[in-house]
Design brief:
The complex is a heterodimer of chains A (247) and B (241). Chain A is built from 9 helices and 10 strands. Chain A is an alpha/beta fold. Chain A is globular. Chain A starts with a strand and ends with a helix. By secondary structure, chain B is mainly alpha-helical. The two termini of chain B are 35 Å apart. In chain B, 32% of the residues are buried. The chains are: A alpha/beta (247), B mainly alpha (241). The A-B interface holds A 48, 50, 76-77, 79-80, 82-84, 86, 88-94, 103-104, 107-108, 136-139, 152, 156 and B 120, 122-123, 125-133, 136, 140-141, 144-145, 224, 227-230.
């Protein structure tokens, strides 16, 4: 369903992503783990072109886009098939919770106000925040804001939702509610690509885990393999370090 | 002091107040329109153009506006001739308005630029990630958040403009100030205090009205600010020459 071939991204002389290829099936939950600065977030941002790779191809929803020669129209098209949940939530500050979820449906998808409203209330109910429809983002806790941003992503019915470290900016006691919401999205059959440092969550939710190191895929496989029987020394080292420093 | 005389001459000013207002409104509206591309060029740091705009802003803000008025009045026909238009004599009002548009375009671009830069990058990215076109993003997300930040600065610009417009009499425009100098000459300097006091009251009145309009907009701004939870420090947006 989503297919990335030979994606390359550099910032100046620094090669951030080195010839990445990835195939994602419909409904699959894929989690990227790995040390900071290895390109996990950059890869996610390439998929909806917040970063522009210098070469590579992506196929999504039956259409193939060449990163090297992508047009403005193709960029919009690709972005409209994906949705992103950001580390810092990035809810529109000048809009209410409901307007945040509705806006793209009206502005981008040209839905009627009524249809957008009904859809938005449904998605807000799914993340348990239909009661906060008229609040402004700054009146909500970080966990609530992140759940609204999940509803905003769901509301545009994307082919894939990209989660960029969705719990990293949250107070520890708020992490659970967001993970629960993501879990429900995964259960509904949505295709998900997730970058996270929540290892036990990654283990539970993922169909496939990809360990990245220095801009390359170092190892990939089912969570059981990566977390318990990793074949890569680099993965084992990272996980060991991770568990001894944070747990 | 002859208050009766002041009341006598006041009606004569009614005929020239529209000229002052016309100059101010045209300069404010087109100045704002000019300031948008100027600010955009500076924000995007477009090579060459950005440096050019920097020089234009610096020049405009660093030279007396009276001098700029003379430069436009005497220089514009020469410049137009160079590019093929043969207008040896442009109207004083035209020269005044064009000059004040350029002055305000520079001034207001320096209000808009920091207001734009104050908007969190994440707001842009959220809109982009959902497939908003640049225009949709500006209209729905960026400009509504910029407006409350830019308003105090734009309000200042408006008051400055009203005051600066009083200088256009120097190139022969008969606006409020222009009429006052004529009157003061007609009375051989006998009633100067009365004439200029009347003019001061008129400018006070015009400024008060525009201040009320700005205050009305500011009240809306405060509502928006409360909504967004954005703490605005006056010095952050304030701008003065």
């Amino acid at each position: 369903m989503l297919n990335i071939e030979n994606l390359n991204l550099s910032f100046g002389d620094h090669k951030v992503l080195d010839d990445i290829s990835l195939e994602v099936k419909k409904g699959e939950v894929i989690t990227f783990i790995g040390p900071s600065g290895t390109g996990k977030t950059s890869l996610l941002r390439c998929i909806n072109l917040l970063e522009k790779p210098e070469s590579g191809r992506i196929t999504l929803g039956g259409l193939t886009y060449d990163f090297g020669s992508i047009t403005k129209k193709e960029t919009l098209n690709l972005r409209r098939k994906t949705a992103m949940v950001f580390q810092q939530y990035n809810l529109f500050k000048n809009k209410t919770v409901l307007e945040n979820v509705m806006d793209a449906q009206i502005v981008v998808q040209k839905k009627s106000k009524k249809a957008a409203h009904d859809k938005s209330m449904k998605e807000l109910a799914r993340v348990g925040l239909d009661g906060k429809a008229d609040a402004y983002p700054h009146q909500l806790s970080g966990g609530q804001q992140q759940r609204v941003s999940i509803a905003r992503a769901l509301a545009v019915e994307p082919e894939v939702i990209l989660f960029d470290e969705p719990t990293s900016a949250l107070d520890p006691e708020l992490v659970g509610e967001v993970l629960k919401a993501i879990g429900e999205v995964a259960d509904s059959g949505m295709t998900i690509i997730l970058v996270t440092h929540e290892m036990s969550f990654a283990k539970d939710i993922s169909d496939r885990v990809i360990f990245m190191d220095q801009g390359r895929v170092a190892e990939e496989g089912p969570p059981e393999q990566i977390f318990n029987h990793s074949e890569s020394a680099r993965t084992q080292q990272f996980l060991r370090k991770f568990y001894t420093t944070t747990h | 002091m002859d208050i009766k005389y002041m009341l006598e001459i006041f009606p004569q000013f009614l005929s020239v107040i529209p000229i002052t207002i016309l100059i101010v409104v045209l300069s404010a509206v087109f100045g704002l329109l000019l300031s948008i591309p100027v600010a955009a060029i500076r924000i995007r740091r477009i090579p060459v153009l950005s440096q050019l705009m920097g020089a234009y802003i610096s020049f405009t803000r660093s030279t007396p506006i009276l001098l700029q008025l003379f430069l436009f009045f005497f220089g514009l026909p020469v410049l137009l001739q160079l590019i093929g238009f043969d207008i040896t004599n442009i109207g004083a009002i035209t020269a005044a308005v064009v000059c004040l548009i350029f002055f305000n375009g520079a001034y207001m671009s320096e209000v808009l630029r920091p207001a734009y830069l104050a908007i969190d990058k994440g707001q842009h990215e959220a809109a982009e990630s959902l497939g908003y076109t640049p225009f949709q993003k500006m209209k729905g997300i960026v400009i509504p958040q910029m407006a409350p930040i830019a308003l105090p600065g734009l309000g200042n610009a408006m008051i400055h403009l009203i005051h600066d417009s009083s200088l256009v009499f120097a190139i022969g425009v008969v606006d409020v100030m222009g009429l006052a100098t004529i009157m003061s000459g007609d009375t051989f300097g006998m009633k100067q205090v009365e004439v200029f006091l009347t003019v001061a009251l008129i400018y006070w009145g015009i400024s008060m009205v525009s201040e009320q309009i700005i205050r009305l907009l500011e009240r809306r701004k405060k509502r928006v600010l409360r909504k967004t939870g954005y703490e605005l420090k006056e010095e952050e947006a304030g701008y003065s020459v």
